[in-house]
Amino acid sequence: MAASVLASDFTNIAGEVRRIEAAGADWFHLDIMDGHFVDNISFGPAMVAAVKKCTALPVDVHLMIERPEHYFGRFQGADNITIHVEIAGDVAGTLRAIRASGRTAGLALSPDTPFEKVEPFLGGIDLLLVMTVRPGFGGQKFMPETLEKITAAAEWQRRHSREFLIEVDGGINTETAALAAGLGASVMVAGTSVFAAPDAAEAIRSLRVPS
Fold it and tell me: In whole angstroms, how far apart are CA 124 and each of 6, 94, 103, 204?
């Protein structure tokens, strides 16, 4: 369960991170937006570093930016860095560079991008992020038509005997987490449903699907 910092109270980021870690989160997920790749601006390397200072949990950084190959090295404290397959640059080369830097490498695809677009790169990733909403803003409703990409990813793994985590992000609640997990997803990104919950620990427990 990866808690999305975008939904936190930015005026008390240290307290929010410690609260959600105590509530049982496994990772912290940070969405980096540049106002170009997506029509929003969130935060940058300083926020990643601040979160890392407050937690021993893995920090999962999702770069929704146009030039990840140029910027990824600035995100000190990131344990995983995910880039988008839709960028104009060198996807394979950027994934290799992320891994060479000592981090794990993820690849994301947006709802309108067909699964076939990521297939050439699946042998060189540690995580596949299936966006279940359009990237750029929190609080959107889950798009059920994206579930077929989770199925396709799990089937690709079986055919090729290759393991990577399947992460889903967008509109995750108890119902949608169960749907995604049933098809093969193993990492759920949740923001508002955790940070805004009256009981964050119960919210996190409700998102976990028994194995």
Answer: 28, 11, 13, 31
Domain 2-207: CATH superfamily is: Aldolase class I (3.20.20.70)
Predicted pLDDT at 211:
52
Percent composition of the chain: helix, strand, coil (DSSP 3-state, to 5): 45, 20, 35
Whether 90 is catalytic is no
How much is the average pLDDT of 164-179? 95
| 207: nearest Cα among 48, 2, 54, 68 | 2
DSSP state of 132: S
DSSP of 91-124: HHHHHHHHHHTTSEEEEEE-TTS-GGGTGGGGGG
Domain ranges of the chain: 2-207
pLDDT digits (tens, 9 = 90+) for 68-118: 999 999 999 999 999 999 999 999 999 999 999 999 999 999 999 999 999
Catalytic site includes residue 169 = yes
Give the C-alpha separation, 25 to 32, whole Å: 20
Q: Active site residue: 39, 112, 169, 199, which one?
A: 169
Which CA distances in Å does 79 have to 150, 161, 202? 23, 25, 26
Q: What is the pTM of this model?
A: 0.95
Which one is catalytic: 9, 26, 31, 34?
Answer: 31
C-beta of residue 58 within 8 angstroms of C-beta of residue 27: yes
Q: Report H helices in the chain.
A: 13-22, 45-54, 68-71, 91-100, 147-160, 174-183, 192-195, 200-207
